[in-house]
Amino acid sequence: MTLILLLAAAYLLGSVPFAIISSRLFGLADPRKYGSGNPGATNVLRSGNKAAALLTLVGDCLKGAAAVWLALAFGFSATDAAFAGLAAFFGHVFSLFLRFNGGKGVATALGVLLGINPWLALTCLGVWLITAALTRYSSAAALAAALGAPLAAYFIVGSPSVVAALLVMAGVLIWRHEANIRRLLAGTEGRIGGRSGKAG
After folding, report:
1. Residue 191: inside a domain
2. What sign has the CA pseudo-torsion 158, 159, 165, 171?
3. What is the DSSP string of 81-131?
4. pTM for the whole structure
C-alpha cells in the first residue's frame, strides 16, 4: 500500500505541465496549438522564447529526478525509487492535468536517470548532445539516448530491476516519437532551432 501511494504521488508530480505553466508565465501561446503541438521544451523553444523553453526543460527534468530522490529520502529501496521515477515519467507523458495527454518525456526521463545515478544521466546526455550536434535533429538525439539508457544502466548501475524500468521508459519514448521517426525517414523532420508553425 505504501508503494502504491509512492507511485501515485510520483505520477501526480510528473503530471505537472511545465510547458503550459512557463508559456503562461511568459505570455506565450499554448504550446499545444503551434509547432509539433507537443507540450515540451523543444516545442516551447519554437516560440522564440529561450527563457520559457529553459524553464520548461528544467522543470520537466527536476520532476523526474525529484520523484527518485524523494523516494530514497523516505527510505524506499533503489528499485522502488526507480519505479517512482518511471511513474513520474508516465505522469508527464499521460498527464492527469492535460486529460491524459502530455509531452514525449525526454527531459523527464533525463531527470529520472539523474536521480538514479548522475553518471548514468551524464552518459545519456552525452549521447544526446553528440547525436544532436551531428544531425541537428532533437528527435534523433532523443531516440539514441533512449536506446542507450538501458544499456548504460546495465554497466553503470547493474540492477536488473532498474534496467527493466528503463527498458519500459525507452519503449514509451520510442513509441511517442513514432511520427518523428516517419518524418526522419521521409527527410521532413524539423531541425533544432527551426520554427514549425506560428507561435500566435
Report:
1. no
2. positive
3. HHHHHHHHHHHHHT-GGGTT-----HHHHHHHHHHH-HHHHHHHHHHHHHH
4. 0.90
Give the DSSP H/E element, type plus range, for residue 185: helix 178-186
CB environment 93-102: b (16+ within 10 A), e (fewer): bbbeebeeeb
Encode pLDDT of 63-117 as tens digits: 999 999 999 999 999 999 999 999 999 999 999 999 999 999 999 999 999 999 9
Amino acid sitting at position 64? G
Q: Kindly compute the dihedral angle of the four CA atoms of residues 164, 170, 174, 177, in this order, to the nearest 10 degrees.
A: 140
Into how many domains does the chain fold?
1
Q: Do 87 and 11 touch, CB atoms closer than 8 A?
A: yes
Please indicate, yes or no, if residue 135 is contained in any of the structural domains.
Answer: yes
Domain-embedded: residue 200: no
Domain assignment of residue 109, yes or no? yes
CB-hemisphere CA count at 13 Å for 154?
7
Which residues form the domain of 118?
2-186
At position 162, the amino acid (one-letter code) is: V
